[in-house]
Amino acid sequence: MLRLAGLLSALCVITYAQCPNIITRSQWGARRVNCLSAMKTPVPFVVIHHTEGAACTTRSACISQVKDIQSYHIDSRKWCDIGYSFLVGEDGNVYEGRGWNKVGAHALGGMNPKSIGISVIGSFSSRKPNLAALNAVKSLIRCGVSKGYVRSNYILKGHRNVTPTSCPGNTFYNLIKGWPQFKA
Ligand SMILES: [Zn+2]
């Protein structure tokens, strides 16, 4: 009985600390940037996006998307880096954008310094992201809470709730409306 209890508590610790696989900037070959706007954590909001571009289901295809998005945000939008905190592919991986500690450029209305912006790679107006991507998003949010970057009573929002935009796509938006702690 005692052994079982020990085993169960060990399992709980493992589950609690578990974070999704996060491909770091150096692993995906991010361009070096110089924007150091520190974020005050834990943040009270999580904002969900889609990239509104092509989807990807392999690590190499997702890396190519993430690189293109970083270059687009730097060269065309004139932001100092990729706008999102994290990107998630339908390969089930999370790709580090600005990460947990730096203010992003993903949502206007004063939301950037108060939120983690998670963008699923693809267009989700008429279909949901696949299960691998959805699980990675949920796991990333839990990970942020467990590591103290996101408040446990965080509010989940879609990009369209804070800025006039169709992001994160009608089908994906309808799905996240049913997720825990969502508030339009
Ligand atoms: Zn968006």
What is the topological layout?
Layout: H1 2-17, E1 22-23, H2 25-28, E2 43-50, H3 59-76, E3 86-88, E4 94-96, E5 115-120, H4 131-146, E6 150-158, H5 170-176
Parallel strand pairs: 1-4, 2-5, 2-6, 3-5
Antiparallel strand pairs: 3-4
Bound molecules: zinc ion.
Zinc ion (ZN) is lined by residues 49, 159, 165, 167.
Please give a structural write-up.
By secondary structure, the chain is α/β, with parallel strands linked by helices. The chain has a single domain (19-176), classed as Lysozyme-like. It contains five helices and six strands; from the N terminus they run H-E-H-E-H-E-E-E-H-E-H. It has a six-stranded mixed β-sheet. The mean pLDDT is 92. Bound molecules: zinc ion. Residues 49, 159, 165, 167 line the site of zinc ion (ZN). Belongs to the N-acetylmuramoyl-L-alanine amidase 2 family. Pfam families: Amidase_2. Keywords: Disulfide bond, Immunity, Innate immunity, Signal. Residues 1-17 form the signal peptide. GO terms for molecular function: N-acetylmuramoyl-L-alanine amidase activity; peptidoglycan binding; zinc ion binding.
Ligand names: zinc ion
In which range does the helix fraction lie? 25-40%
Secondary-structure element pattern, one letter each: HEHEHEEEHEH
Instruction: Using the 3D structure, state the CATH architecture.
Output: 3-Layer(aba) Sandwich
Number of domains: 1
CATH class: Alpha Beta
CATH H level, superfamily name: Peptidoglycan recognition protein-like
Strand content: 15-25%
Tertiary shape: globular
CATH topology type: Lysozyme-like
Disulfide bonds: 19-143, 56-62
Pfam families: Amidase_2
GO biological process, one term: peptidoglycan catabolic process
Domain N-acetylmuramoyl-L-alanine amidase: 31-169
